[in-house]
Amino acid sequence: MGSYEYDTQQTNPTGKSNHAATDVADTEEVKKLKTQYKNELKTLQELFEDWTEADLLFALQEASGDLDNTIARISQ
User: Fold this and answer.
1) Where is this region: Disordered (predicted)?
2) N or C: where does the chain have the smaller number of CB atoms within 10 Å of the terminal CB?
3) Of 28 and 17, which is predicted with more confidence?
């Protein structure tokens, strides 16, 4: 298996992005992914507390929703 690199966003203590402007399309996509991967997201949040919700959702999306594959990729 190759290495898996995922660019995480920096967040402030409230968990919100430090970016001044949030892209509306990204927000809508995050909402859609949150609905689609609700159960998987809970597991990932417990395992990877330092990751933002959006980063976990996009990692899940890149792994086609495969929880085990997502965990393996993040852990590498």
Assistant:
1) 1-23
2) N
3) 28
**Residue 38 confidence (pLDDT) above 50:** yes
Long-range contacts from 59-65, C-beta under 8 angstroms, 24+ separation: 59/6, 60/33, 61/33, 61/37, 62/6, 65/36, 65/37, 65/40
Distances in Å between the alpha carbon of 14 and those of 2, 17, 38, 43, 69?
Answer: 34, 9, 21, 21, 29
pTM assigned to the model: 0.67
Q: What number of other Cβ atoms are within 10 A of residue 41's Cβ?
A: 18
Asked if the model's pLDDT at residue 34 lies above 80, the reply is yes
